[in-house]
Amino acid sequence: MQQCAIFRVLSIKLNIMKKILTALVCIIMVQLAQAQIQKGSLFLGGSLSAGSMTSESSSTTNKNSGWSINPQIGKAIDLNKIIGVQIYVGGNAEESSTGGVPLNKNVSTAYGLGVFYRQYFPLAAKWAMFANAGIDGRYGTGETKSNGIKTTENNGWALSAAVTPGISYRAGKSIWLEAALNNLFGINYSSNKLNSINQSGQVMATGKQNTFNSGVNLSGFNSIAIGLRWIIQK
Q1: Residue 219 belongs to some domain of the structure
Q2: pTM of the model
């Protein structure tokens, strides 16, 4: 009789432990599900930036300003796997002056279109790591003026591919905050044409430059980009 009582107690304890373990597994699965991106989900995001910096040396004032718009749209083709397209439009201006009189001014504008593939890796409740691989093509134009007179003009294109790691946090039903590191690996090829112009506006000389570079960046934590994404689950 005593042994039967002991077995009954052990059986009750085992059943309680099973229920607790089952509950824990369910909680973990529910929490992990919050970091999952279902097939068919719509992915919206991008970045908008603008900035200006002014510095002075002796009697010369240097100003550098720039802006860019980089919208993205994509769709989950499978669980946690997204493909999409992105557009880039941006501009930059570098100016120098003395006593308010302009010396040199360099202005450039670029337009781009690219495709990307993103894979998410759920970590815990609402948290996930991601790896983003993208290919972009850009076309840009620019000119340089000295004392208000155009001295050079250039145009060219560039093709690049990069892999960028990062981490995301689900801050709301469809809102994800993310921190992306520097490109872990990148390849870039560019071709630029430069025209030298005289004071009459005539092209005096033409030059062309092609460059290719690639590399692995192991110092990604030196620069972190903060972003916002909308992932609308199907």
Answers
A1: yes
A2: 0.72
Any domain includes 220: yes
19-38 pLDDT, tens per residue?
Answer: 454 444 444 444 444 568 89
Tell me, yes or no, whether 10 lies in a domain. no
Residue 107 is assigned to a structural domain of this protein? yes
CATH of the domain at 102: 2.40.160
Q: How many domains does the chain have?
A: 1
Predicted confidence band of residue 125 (pLDDT cuts 50, 70, 90): confident
Beta-bridge partners for 82? 76, 118
- Residue 74 CB: number of other CB atoms within 10 A? 21
State residue 93's pLDDT score: 92
Do 191 and 184 touch, CB atoms closer than 8 A?
Answer: no
* Residue given tokens 């890796």 in the structure block: 121
